[in-house]
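Action item from last meeting closed. Structure (266 res):
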């Protein structure tokens, strides 16, 4: 993985973009297809699965007793993992959106917002339903990717080995493009902070590649903890900036839709 990342990053932003625009649609379609097959195969159990999800979230048992603390823990974990998944509020996605060549930044912002919908509402819902439909969430000893792997192996009408291979392939592609994306974010931030000094960026690039090599040797809990801490450090100043600039955002958005309604832009 580190070698593949290095071969792409050394090529710069153009190579990152060219690789990502091929891999991302491919892995998304494959994952949608197999998760969709799993749900369609177990379509009769979907209503009961949704009922289980709603009941677990809003049942009196989840609100009373000693479970109140558990609810806050679940909310904290859910929000943290959700942010890690869709980057909402971190201010990272706009770095990529800002690289787009467009005369209408509001339109680019609206397009960028669809990423959160696709990631959270579509992909996470498909994954959650797959896990509940197959009962993978009730299997003791499973966590992380093991839960999803179990769900795919049990719920898909294919040999378990094939289902596991497809999921692992999707995860590898997801991880690979995520690593590329975060390197791009980091390089753009460092370029800004260093006044455009590309020497610093090149040094950072090699440090980043080294981190990719070291990462697999860390425990999952350590990785999540580090990610949560740094996500918080990004979210706090970004949220302050969003509130401070909310008036500008509202003004630009109103102006965009006004001009669109008048036919001045398409």
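Sequence:
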């Amino acid at each position: 993985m580190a070698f593949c990342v290095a071969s792409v990053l050394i090529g710069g932003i153009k190579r990152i973009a060219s690789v990502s625009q091929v891999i991302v649609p491919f892995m998304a379609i494959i994952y949608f297809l197999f998760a969709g097959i799993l749900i369609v195969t177990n379509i009769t159990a979907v209503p009961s699965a949704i009922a289980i999800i709603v009941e677990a979230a809003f049942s009196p048992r989840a609100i009373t007793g000693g479970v109140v603390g558990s609810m806050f823990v679940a909310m904290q974990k859910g929000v943290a993992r959700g942010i890690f998944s869709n980057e909402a509020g971190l201010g990272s996605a706009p770095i990529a959106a800002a690289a787009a060549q467009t005369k209408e930044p509001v339109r680019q912002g609206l397009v960028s917002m669809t990423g959160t919908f696709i990631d959270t509402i579509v992909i996470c819902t498909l994954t959650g339903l797959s896990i509940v439909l197959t009962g993978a969430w009730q299997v003791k000893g499973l966590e992380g990717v093991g839960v999803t792997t179990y769900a795919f192996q049990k719920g898909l009408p294919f040999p378990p080995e094939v289902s596991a291979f497809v999921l692992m392939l999707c995860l590898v592609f997801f991880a690979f493009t995520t690593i590329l994306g975060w390197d791009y974010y980091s390089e753009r931030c460092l370029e800004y902070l260093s006044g455009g000094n590309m020497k610093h960026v090149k040094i950072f690039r090699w440090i980043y590649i080294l981190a990719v090599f070291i990462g697999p040797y860390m425990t999952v809990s350590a990785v999540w903890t580090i990610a949560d801490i740094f996500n918080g450090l990004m979210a706090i100043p970004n949220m302050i900036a969003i509130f401070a600039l909310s008036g500008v955002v509202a003004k630009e958005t109103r102006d965009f839709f006004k001009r669109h309604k008048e036919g001045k832009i398409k």
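Note appended to the action item: The chain has one domain: 2-261.
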